[in-house]
What we know:
The chain has two domains: 55 residues, 434 Repressor (Amino-terminal Domain) (Orthogonal Bundle); 96 residues, Jelly Rolls (Sandwich). The mean pLDDT is 87. The longest helix is centred in the N-terminal third of the chain and has 10 residues. The protein is an alpha+beta fold.
Amino acid sequence: MIRARRLELGLTLQELAEKTKLSPAFISQVERNKAAASMVSLVNIARALDVRVTTFMEIPAGETPVRWKDNPQRIEVDSPVEYVQLSAGMKFQQMDAILMVIPPGHVFPVDQREGEDFLYVLKGELYSELGDMKLTLKEGDSMHFNSRTPHTASNLTDDVVHLLYVGTPSEFKPE
Length: 175
């Protein structure tokens, strides 16, 4: 689907790589299902291809404002990170609320975009870089920032991290 849209727009791998700040080799692997793009990479690719990120994934649509714990709504994406939709999936929603279960050793690529991000560590420790700031968020710690500031996060421990992410604008609202 990524390759089809790239070709539809007449973009080369190199041109898409420049727009996304990803390598042409990585994009080629993702296009051929030889590598899994992170959520951040998918969002950047979607922006560069002028489509919603939901074009590349299966997002559960909300039918009610309530999400019940015994019926989690997973966002199906080929990633080692597990994403659970906590938002209701309203047609015009402005923010996303997502539970992320981040495996040991996972590193998110550097991201920078319009909007705001809020992170709250429910379990574990998350190493974060925000601009020049480098810190480790532990259980109960939170961080709220302008998403235009370059940022990344990593699970440098041997345990999973459970993270509540809330952000604007919504990348996961239904069409």
